[in-house]
Amino acid sequence: MSSLGRLTGIIGPYRLVWPSIKFHYEALKEALRNDGLAALIHPQRIRDAAVAKLFITTSTGFIAYENTTIVPHLVRSAQGKILELGPGAGNQIHRYDLSVVDFIFGVEPSPQYGDEIEAKVKQLDLEDKYKLLVCGIEDSDMLIAEGITDGRMDTVVSIQVLCAVGDVKGVMRAVWKLLRPGGSFVFWEHTRNKDAVTAFAQACWNPTWSALVGCCMNRDILADILAAGEWENPSDIEVADDPFSCLPRISGVLKKKAE
Fold first, then answer.
1. Can you say how many angstroms the Cα of residue 137 is from the centroid of all Cα atoms in its chain?
2. Which of 6, 109, 141, 242 has the fewest C-beta atoms lying within 10 Å of its C-beta?
3. Ordered structural domains, the chain, with CATH
């Protein structure tokens, strides 16, 4: 039984890699139709379009899976003035407890998700409580224009985002600074597996996974979160005991230590 579990875990990433190959092919054809061979000068645009299509298409499946996890409970704990990192296709929007939410800023650098988020915000009648900012958390000028400055956020939410950012340490330092003392960092992320065999499988998968799915499979996310600043309750972080999974999760609600 354990051998079957390990095999299932090792081949599991293929379920996203295969459709992503198809979406990359379609994005390439579309780019060539629109721009000819000049499209090949900008491979990142093709990749971004394909990855966005992948996650928009699989959004319903991700929501269903997350419903079996702690994710709905984590998101409902967010309150006050909230910044959501990388909302993508908007999978978390319906999970917020609006009775304790003042406002939500979705900070998403990829413009391809705009229509999806707009539709969900309209469907949930959240136009007065949600705003999408097409930028990264490092784009301080745009954040400052919205009043998002150091010590002003009550909650920052990150659901499967830190695997995809360019500089995890930099993003986490920015998160810690934006939170008010006592503010909450709510997260559910995947990380490097402690099991040596599965960690090796992650390392083998990672070049393909990063290129086609858009994130790093085997980062030490926990270390980067803890290094961002002083937290009141680091012992509350939960690390899934899942030695066969190439995507083991860590999660928690960390409180920024009051000065």
1. 13
2. 141
3. 69-256 (3.40.50.150)
* CA contacts within 13 A on the Cβ side of 86: 20
What's the pTM? 0.94
Determine the average pLDDT of the residues in 42-68: 95
Q: Render pLDDT for 190-224 as a digit per residue (tens, 0 to 9).
A: 999 999 999 999 999 999 999 999 999 999 999 99
CA distances from 1 to 15, 117, 198, 207 (A): 21, 42, 16, 29
Q: What is the 3-state secondary structure (H, E, C) of the chain?
A: CHHHHHHHHHHCCHHHHHHHHHHHHHHHHHHHHHHHHHHHHCHHHHHHHHHHHHHHHCHHHHHHHHCCCCHHHHHHCCCEEEEEECCCCCCCHHHCCHHHEEEEEEECCCHHHHHHHHHHHHHCCCCCCEEEECCCCCCHHHHHHCCCCCCCEEEEEEECCCCCCCCHHHHHHHHHHHEEEEEEEEEEEECCCCCHHHHHHHHHHHHHHHHHHCCCCCCCHHHHHHCCCCECCHHHCEECCCCCCCCCEEEEEEEECCC
Please state the rounded mean pLDDT for residues 19-48.
92
pLDDT surpassing 80 at residue 259? no
